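Hello,

Our lab assistant flagged a job as stuck in the queue for most of the afternoon. It eventually completed. Since we weren't sure the result was trustworthy after the delay, we are filing this so someone can double-check. Below is the sequence as submitted and the structure that was eventually returned. Let us know if re-running is recommended.
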Amino acid sequence: MPRDRARGVVIVGTSHSIQMATNGVKAQVGKELQDFLIGLCRTHGIRAVAEELSTEALAQCGHAASIPMQAAKLEKVEHRFCDPDSAERVRLSICLDELLMRAQGQLDGLSEIDIASRIVSEHAKRERYWFAKIQALDQWPILFICGANHVGNFRALLEREGFTVTVAAEDWASNSTPHRTRLKHRALAHNRSRALGRRGR
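-- returned structure --
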């Protein structure tokens, strides 16, 4: 697969509460993210917008559209939800509940590093699923929005597969976003990096 701009992926990491404008996130923050995404679409000649989200998850939050979906509509480009819904997760044996995985790991007598490694393995299943979804969409360059703690690993996956990747934001947050949100994502990313380093030894 050629490494060129036409097969490129632009990644934006952020929190899901911002992505869906839920959990008390102000409308202004959603508008700022939307404007940021629209700017990326125009700068990179984006032909499709995809995201780590499902229609099921969006409906559970009482929303009809996500911020990336609204940006895609305004730019008149394709949009695709890429995260598996609950039925698909059961079929693929994917667990999303990190608290459950952590509790089970403690019951199994695993170290914190081994528990983090188990969580990384579950994330990797989802990230391969997203990759398959954007391949099937086959519109390039594509803008992909995901949780900040997935950015590094998803970028690595794409680059291994021969794609050119641009990380536009590792953890997008407006000035209105609480600082603790950014710290949380950085901590998660750090734990995942430690687990990956240990697996690579």
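-- support follow-up --
The delay was a queue issue, not a problem with the job. The result is valid. The mean pLDDT is 82. The first strand starts at residue 8 and ends at 14.
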